[in-house]
Specification:
The protein is mostly helical. The protein has helices at about 5-15, 20-45, 50-55, 55-80, 95-110, 115-120, 125-150, 155-175, 185-210. InterPro entries: NrsF.
Length: about 210
């Protein structure tokens, strides 16, 4: 076999390239999303006063916080899907929702309180929040882990935790349209606890299924 023929043979062998991790992750999340939406529609649904709630800046803030978690988590998880990729220089993206919550809590504190701090913190839906967000996250978490399996993360537990943040952020965005507790204190407490639970599950499962 001469050199030109060898090159053509090697090119033919590599004509089929594996899809990019980002494309697989996007498709997996899109496939999983209807199941999460079905859970939401069956057991929760959009709050009845959503039109008036949209005039409340703290209601809108919930979506800003959840999306500022989900979108950076997707970016960082794709970065970590490459072998030997490090979190250094990327972790600050995950602090965006923390900064938004800090600003929102400070803004609420400067306003005349409509209800006591304890009531704003506990709300009416804390138990529902702790169940609903993880439940809606599970299909999305499975999709995120499936997508990241097409990469080669050198730290599978960390990549799994990022998959948990992605799925929890997206599920919390759905839940925010149902939740009637709009106080940033409630979001900072109960949304965070629910997200931490999903993140822990993602890290535990990711340590196994993302190992290569």
């Amino acid at each position: 076999m001469d050199t030109d023929q060898l090159i053509r043979s090697l090119a033919a062998d590599n004509a089929h390239r594996a899809p990019r991790v980002g494309a697989v992750l996007t498709m997996a999340l899109l496939v999983a999303a209807p199941l999460s939406i079905l859970i939401f529609a069956t057991f929760l649904g959009v709050r009845h006063d959503v039109m008036s709630a949209m005039r409340n800046p703290f209601f809108d803030m919930k979506f800003a916080v959840t999306l500022s978690l989900a979108i950076p988590a997707i970016i960082v998880s794709l970065h970590l899907s490459r072998p030997e990729a490090l979190l250094r220089g990327w972790g600050w993206l995950l602090l965006l929702p923390v900064g938004l919550l800090a600003v929102a809590i400070g803004s609420e504190a400067m306003m005349a309180p409509a209800m006591p701090t304890t009531m704003r913190l506990m709300g009416k839906n804390s138990r529902v929040c702790l169940v609903a967000i993880p439940a809606m996250s599970l299909p999305l978490l499975a999709g995120a882990l499936f997508g990241l399996r097409h990469g080669a993360p050198s730290r599978p537990a960390l990549a799994g935790a990022l998959a948990g943040l992605v799925s929890a952020g997206l599920a919390a965005t759905l839940y925010a349209s149902h939740c009637t507790d709009d106080s940033p204190l409630f979001v900072a407490t109960w949304y965070t606890l629910a997200t931490a639970l999903v993140t822990a599950i993602g890290a535990a499962v990711g340590a196994r299924v993302l190992r290569y």
